[in-house]
Amino acid sequence: MRIGVDAxxxxxxxxxxxxxxxxxxxDFPSIEVxxxxxxxxxxxxxxxxxxxxxxxxxxxxxxxxxxxxxQSAISLRAxxxxxxxxxxxxLKEKKIDAMATPGHTGATVAAxxxxxxxxxxxxxxxxxxxxxxxxxxxxxxDAGANTDCTALNLVQFxxxxxxxxxxxxxxxxxxxxxxxxxxxxxxxxxxxxxAFKRLEQLPINFIGNVEADAAFEGEADVxxxxxxSGNVMLKSAEGLxxxxxxxxxxxxxxxxxxxxxxVLAKNAFTELKAFGSSDVxxxxxxxxxNGICIIGHGGSNPIAVRNAIRVSAExxxxxxxxxxxxxxxxxxxxxxxxxxxxxxxxxxx
Amino acid sequence: MRIGVDAxxxxxxxxxxxxxxxxxxxDFPSIEVxxxxxxxxxxxxxxxxxxxxxxxxxxxxxxxxxxxxxQSAISLRAxxxxxxxxxxxxLKEKKIDAMATPGHTGATVAAxxxxxxxxxxxxxxxxxxxxxxxxxxxxxxDAGANTDCTALNLVQFxxxxxxxxxxxxxxxxxxxxxxxxxxxxxxxxxxxxxAFKRLEQLPINFIGNVEADAAFEGEADVxxxxxxSGNVMLKSAEGLxxxxxxxxxxxxxxxxxxxxxxVLAKNAFTELKAFGSSDVxxxxxxxxxNGICIIGHGGSNPIAVRNAIRVSAExxxxxxxxxxxxxxxxxxxxxxxxxxxxxxxxxxx
Lengths: 349, 349
Prior knowledge:
The structure is a homodimer. The first copy, chain A, is an alpha/beta fold. The first copy, chain A, is built from 14 helices and twelve strands. Chain A has a seven-stranded mixed β-sheet with strand order 3-2-1-4-12-11-5, sandwiched between helices. In chain A, strands 6-7-10-8-9 form a five-stranded mixed β-sheet, sandwiched between helices. The first copy, chain A, starts with a strand and ends in an 11-residue tail after the last helix. The interface between A and B is large, with 63 and 62 residues.
């Protein structure tokens, strides 16, 4: 199995990526790695971590880098030889089975959409973020790949999320909910009301509307959403987590007694932070493209990189994409009902 | 000044409402109160809190109650004599200057929209929720009154939010941001891109797109959003706050050392909870209706009720609605440019 790894992705590239890769090569002996990045910079770190000339690493030179501040479309057009574009091309040509990047989400979505294209039956790929809930985790999708969605897009997200949750959470029939503004069936906006009618017909465990707070309480395993609202939810969680840690520090350092208490309970706060961490997951897959692509957080540490590589390999073993294609086919007649008629479709015979 | 108070609103009505009212009557000697609720049940609590026959309370019998679980439209049609409908009618007839309810948001929005109608120049009222940020608070609007919005709605929300933030946060030129999925101007969905062009032209301190995490970091005083995404943000914050408290308890009770630490730092956790509390604010105004209406949390305690009454009175004194009407007029020529042309408008001469 060949996994493409973006050596230049993330805030601490390439050092952090190579360190995570070193661990992955030890832990997962069956994988081979195609490492895309700036040759000289990568080689420096390969030597540092004792990986120079490693027989399971093939280094592909990708001289330019998608800076985190750059716009996705520009990166794609201007940087045909960036590590992300190089990997997307290898994925398209089936020279790698999967790619992992702790990098620029927008650039990766753009590159894979254009170069790798989507699976049969899928119109738009979606970013599936695993979020912490009170009782475990849930899959939020789309977490930001598509700002404007149709009801049919949401239906496809539900089918894909269902398959991925089967793998990620080891659940046979994940509870799939639709992100909305009220728990009752009739609540929502035009988009969710339209999607609701279609989701009800799918051969999945659809549990109806789920409000954002209920999702964080653990009421669903998959939360289906357009990419705008999904991204608002994702970023709200990130922002509020940072604020909470800031407030905690503030209130715990107000006097000597509290500081003493905080010192005694120190490990508890380390554990608290771990609830929100996605290091174990490694990253969010971009589901629906014709290849496996795991996108890690820009701030990924070596453990997250190692796990992004693990998840990439596991998705290949799981046959994720074939299962998605099957799911869309199984939804078969339902899916046909779901398809919006083309604008000038002839009347049914 | 006459403030209408919904005695039957919220999870702990009417006891909690009457207790809060008792405090408000002491603290704000210039207000008179029209109390709407089930006569016998309310009188029991009036006696309990020594308010029987109070000369600044007029009790209006409203026999039926909008249960929290009921649907808004049904409540409005079926319950013409609910406390919310009674107050909305009094507000429409200018028999009260403002109303405060710790109750059913949906029913209140429906009743005031239908009975009280909107201010001149405002198409849709919006719920303005004050949210905690790292450095203070920000106004999120619309927090859930309108699930589908036009760009023009968002423009009006921005004008109204700007005025309300001037009162609530005592800022002359509040920083008004547009909730989006990227900080750059061009990021967003069709709705926000359209709204962005219009917001830029307004005579307000428009700071461009704001991501949800940046909002929680305190980058804006007003965050303009459609009611669906706004509600997702509000509920995400509520849900994540509850999860965080749950996790904190879990990690702090794992062993004796941590428990001891938690006991020493006990007051810190009480203060932490206070960051998220809206008791000081009392509730969220429904901005844009032709009258002042403050909607408190269903779980309001007496302090929140007292403050909802205070905020109602302060909004009247501030001349909130006249200022909103002026703001829309001042935006004058801009606002005309902003109006969508009617579908069959004749071509410009």
